[in-house]
Every structure is written in structure tokens, then in C-alpha cells.
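Final report, section 2: Outcomes. Of the targets proposed, FMN-dependent oxidoreductase (Nitrilotriacetate monooxygenase family) is the one most frequently requested by collaborating groups, and we therefore present its record in full.
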Amino acid sequence: MTDKRLHFGWFMNFTANEWNTPFGNDGNPWNGKFYIEMAQAMEKACFDYIMIEDTLMVSEAYGGNSEVYLKYATMAPKHDPAPLAAIMAAATSKMGVVATMSTTFYPPFLLARLASTLDSIAEGRFGWNIVTSGEDGSAQNFGMDKLTEHDLRYDIADEYVDLVCQLWDSWEEGAVIRDQETNTYADFKKVHAIHFAGKYVKSRGPLNTVRSPQGQPTFVQAGGSPKGRQFAAKYADSIIAVANGVEGMKAYRDDVRARAAAQGRNPDDIKVLFVVSPTLGTTEEEALARKKAAAADPAFFEQSLASISSVTDIDFSQYDLDEPLPELETNGERGSLDKFAQWGSGKTLRQLVLDAGGTSDSIELVGTPDQVADKIGEAMEQVGGDGFLISTQRVSKQYITEICDGLFPALQRKGLARTEYTHAHLRDTLREF
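The predicted structure is given below as C-alpha cells.
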């Protein structure tokens, strides 16, 4: 019998959640307790991992100032994902926890040490979401005038990952011996300097942290551009992907798997998770009404355009909503721009925003839990695998309950989602099927 189970993650930010609705939190998400409860609900549902995204600035990309971002708490405020990952990991025991850290702004030794520490705290369930960052505003917060060129950022990241992997391997397995008779904690002959000197980064090593349970954290990456796809195919254990419809999903997955095979990797070791934002209801009519109501919100277009402006560093406030977009280029997230713009479609900016639904949905999922579970199964049959990443601009206790206690039981009844964890480490969980 063919195993038709899929992998599932949840894409979130350490931001304010639905603070202005009846289903928001108590107004203080910043102590992390809301997100700990979210992670525990997800673990009960048997998600593979929760992924905490990050950016490092208060954007002024939309309209030339920060008004929309701060007014609606869109993209800002946003707190550091690493401490949240630590307390989420401490409050769970089986689900993976992934944090975003940028190769552009973290010194390699600092990132390697932090990731190793987090993997030890998580007992082998930590993942690093590898990003190169795509905003000049972030660069300016770190003393740079602007980001380096898009493809060059990936060249630097390639060398960077080589370096941090060597740092993680600077402690051999078995270096910690804890021999009471000789009063020896670690065997210095099994801990090595690496003397890495590359074109872009260098470090002496070794790390001053013990080898973590996974040796190196699980790698998560979102590669949209050709350069990004090549990078993801080389390193990622799981890829975060956005695509336009089932055909786009299949084309993307086939492409990265072919790239992985060409680099000598087993494509089955890479799990491609497509971003979706299911809208659920007790009836299909209720779900459709919810979807329509969200798009009717007066702030919907402004928030949606502010979000895509932030990640692409393009000010979409300058374009007429009822005209097609001109051809645009970016030094920011090229994959996100291409996904949003649907080049050649002739659609107006208004239609593009409505199509995106305020998110980066790969396919539209609207209906009852059973209907949405069926749509998920049908899509994956055509795509070939591997699963989905739940994402929403705002997260509420109500939405968490709808997904974890509504959609997931429906997926499990249909054999589409795991019902238990069988491995201790995140990488092994992803490779289970």
C-alpha cells in the first residue's frame, strides 16, 4: 500500500497576532506564552515543524514611510525568533522548531554557535531557515548602504554554509567522554580548529559548544529564483515554496528535485512544502463568506501591498490598482515578485492582490475541513508531494483550533497526515516518508 501521508509545517512570525478582533490574544504576545500554546497545539496535531520567519527592520518600502506597517502591525513589530524557538522547543518534545537567521547579517561563528545551542536545547529538533535577506532597510541597520547584488548574496551564502558546517563538525562525535576516572570531560584530540579562509568569510574555530544531537541543524530554505532554487537543492532538508496553482507546484518540485539529483543528492531527502492559507467553515457557504469578508476589509489592499512592497523593496503604492503592472525587477525577493505579479497574465494590480488573498497561497483552499482535506489530497496526487506550510497574516486562537482540531483530524482520517511521531530528530521526521 502506498504511503500517502504528507508533511506539514506552519509559517509564522513573532509578531502581534489578531489584536484587533474578538479572537485576538490578551495584548501581550511578547512574553511568548501565546506561541508556546500554539506550538503545543500543533504538536498534538502532529505537525512536522513550526517555522519562525524574520526580517530585521521597520519597513518604509510602501509609500516611503512606516505608517501602514506600524498602524496595522504588518511586518512590524517583529521580535527575535531565536529566543522564541528555545522556549517553544522546551515546551514541546517531538515537533521540530525552525528559526530564521540571515547569512548576510549574522557572523558565521555566532550563527553556528547559536544554532548548535538551540539544537541541544531542542534535543535534535531544531532547524535553521537559511535566508540571505532582501531589504536595503535591513542592510542599513547593520552599517551597510544597501544589500549586495541578489545572486552574489547566494554565492556568499554558499561559502557561509560550508564554513558553518565545518564549525559544527569541529567537534567529532564522541568528543565528550565525561571520564570521571581521568577527570576528563572532552578529548581535546577530537576538537579541531578549522582555519577556514574563503573569498567572503573566514573563521578559525573550533566552536566552543558541544556537538549537537543532529550534528548540524535541519536546513530549511525558500528558493524562488533560479539561483535560490540551486542553493535550496544543494542544502535544504525542506523547502518553503510558493507557486501559482497545481501546475506551478509540480513544475517547481520537479525542477528542484532535478537540480538536487544533478548535484548528487537523493531528491527524496528534500521535502517541498507549499505555502497555503486554508479558510475553513462548518459549511462551504460559511467558508466562502469568510473569504469574501476578508477581501472586503478596507485595509486589505493596503496591508497586502505593504507586505509585498516590503519583501521586494518595490513601492506598490505608486501603481494604479486598476492597471496592469509594468515589468519590474528587484534586488529583493525575486521569487515572491514573480509569484505575485503573474507576468504576462494582463491582470490589474487589484486582481493580483485578490488572487494573492493577502498571502502567498499556492492553491486556494476554502471549505469545510473535509472538503479542504480532499483538495489537499487531490493537489498532492498531481504534484507528487511533499506537503504544505500553513501561513496566515494574522494568527488567532480560533484559527489555530480550526486547523489543529478541525482540518488535521480530517487529514488524518483520510490517511493524509501523520498520527504520531516515530523519530526523535527533525531531519529523521522529515525523511520518514
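Residues 150-168 form the longest helix (19 residues).
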